[in-house]
Write a structure and sequence with these properties.
Elements (H helix, E strand, L loop, with lengths): L1 H10 L1 E6 L4 H24 L8 H12 L8 H26 L10 H31 L14 H12 L8 H27 L8 H31 L8 H9 L10 H26 L1 E6 H5 L1
Antiparallel strand pairs: 1-2
Helix pairs in contact: 2-4, 2-10, 4-5, 5-7, 7-8, 8-10
Membrane topology: Multi-pass membrane protein
Family: Belongs to the mitochondrial carrier (TC 2.A.29) family.
GO biological process, one term: transmembrane transport
Length: 307
């Protein structure tokens, strides 16, 4: 009888894999290696005061004047940004979510709790990642400037050191307030909505926990994230790329952008979505593959969940 009881208990358990806190940073850094040229084109479009180039013509302009490798200008800063910004927001979101559902891992959080958790994680990520984000914007925009006005950072850490040394510590956080607001909206649109879309899809009989579901949920989240973040993304890019004294404050930048009309805040929307959709898809596909293959194994008692 004791053997039979043990046998029954084993069959009452099944396993679930949860992601580790650093998976989001690794997945985001991997994704940016593929999407960096799109991000660079987006930055160039957003920093135009007058629209001279569209996405395709901007890409041709960059390649013709600087060469094909110029599309990867600032890649080190982009990776540095993901390993600070995305590592923080994914790490906080996943860690706190797993802690909140520890008593019943199969029961998802209510949507409003996901949104609140994503907002908090995004705010922390935006603040932590602001210095690398600023260097990323500057390095990407450098090739558009005249040779005597370029900053010519060798890599991300060179840029961070030179800003600290010549412009002061506070300059590392130029545009940090806008970056934080954007990070809150981005994390809500990306992480919490991905989580919710995935949950909804898995309740149907058409989807399983596989790459098809991950792809579908991520492209839906990517579109929502672009809608939420594009106005703040334009403002953040302008503030971070501005030389000292160009804008008196945030409101001055807002007013200057508003002169372009309402669509000035959605400048570069198509390339932003074209860039964010693959970034979101690749991030969550990489994240889910890391989770399914290397995640923490959780043992779940089926009888306990049923009761």
């Amino acid at each position: 009888m004791p053997h039979a009881e043990i046998h029954t208990d084993v069959h009452e358990l099944h396993t679930q894999r949860n992601g580790r806190w650093y998976f989001g940073g690794l997945a985001s850094a991997g994704a940016c290696c593929f999407t960096h040229p799109l991000d660079l084109i987006k930055v160039h479009l957003q920093t135009q005061q007058k629209v001279k180039y569209r996405a395709s013509t901007m890409a041709v302009y960059v390649v013709r004047n600087q060469g094909i490798l110029a599309l990867y200008n600032g890649l080190s800063a982009s990776i540095c940004r993901q390993m600070s910004y995305s590592l923080t927001r994914f790490g906080l979101y996943e860690t706190i979510k797993h802690w909140m559902t520890a008593d019943n891992p199969t029961k998802p959080l209510p949507f409003y709790q996901k949104v609140m958790l994503a907002a908090g994680a995004g705010a922390c990520g935006g603040l932590v990642g602001a210095p690398a984000d600023m260097i990323n914007v500057r390095m990407q925009n450098d090739i558009k400037l005249a040779a005597d006005k370029r900053r010519n950072y060798k890599h991300a850490f060179d840029g961070l050191w030179r800003v600290y040394r010549y412009e002061g510590f506070r300059s590392l956080f130029n545009g940090a307030s806008m970056a934080t607001v954007r990070a809150v909206l981005m994390t809500i649109g990306q992480i919490s909505l991905y989580d919710q879309f995935k949950q909804i899809l898995l309740t149907t009989s058409f989807f399983k926990d596989n790459i098809i579901t991950h792809f579908t949920a991520s492209i839906m989240a990517g579109f929502c994230a672009t809608l939420l973040t594009q106005p703040t993304d334009v403002m953040k890019t302008r503030l971070m790329n501005a030389p000292p004294g160009q804008y008196k404050n945030f409101m001055d930048c807002l007013w200057t952008t508003a002169k372009l009309g309402p669509m000035g805040f959605y400048k570069g929307f198509i390339p932003a979505f074209v860039r964010l959709a693959p970034q979101t898809i690749l991030t969550f596909v990489f994240f889910e593959q890391l989770r399914l293959n290397f995640g923490i194994v959780i043992y779940i008692n089926d009888n306990k969940n049923k009761s």
